[in-house]
Amino acid sequence: MSGFxxxxxxxxxxxxxxxxxxxxxxxxRTKKTWPVSFPQEELKKRLTPMQYHVTQERGxxxxxxxxxxxxxxxxxxxxxxxAQLFSSNTKFDSGSGWxxxxxxxxxxxxxxxDDFSHGIHRVETTCSQCGAHLGHLFDDGPRPTGRRYCxxxxxxxxxxxxxxxxxxxxxxxxxxxxxL
Length: 180
Hints:
The protein has helices spanning 3-12, 40-46, 49-57, and strands at residues 74-78, 84-87, 91-92, 100-101, 110-115, 122-127, 133-138, 148-151, 156-160. By secondary structure, it is an alpha+beta fold. A 6-stranded antiparallel β-sheet has the order 3-4-8-7-6-5. A 3-stranded antiparallel β-sheet has the order 2-1-9, with no helix packed on it. It starts with a helix and ends in a 20-residue tail after the last strand.
């Protein structure tokens, strides 16, 4: 995609309509207001450096560098708290380099807020239980929702449908760190 086309896409795309999350538009919850919280020291020990950077520091992994290119059946949960977020039934290849989903397991599993970082308006997605940064929501997804949840692999843990891995979640990186 040329620079002009990308700029045109960014400047002409309409923001996704935000649903009410009991916060003023653009407001962000503080770490103390999430239903589930963990000490930062525990998270630094339990998560990989990339998982910590993405979920706690609102970072982004590089395109096409994360895991979860498999097509196995199952669910994708928050790597921090284990909350169910996405189903493999709603996963699709957007060509963006990040796992993409067109719908949530439950509408209330993800919180959205305005993100004006990097000089553009985007809609940030966070886990509704622990506040972990997941990625962003765009309005260019497939039918029936028209939504594209563009999610960092590092923020997800895959749970196979058949429980082949003993019911434990697996993350995209395996360097000995345990996950929920």
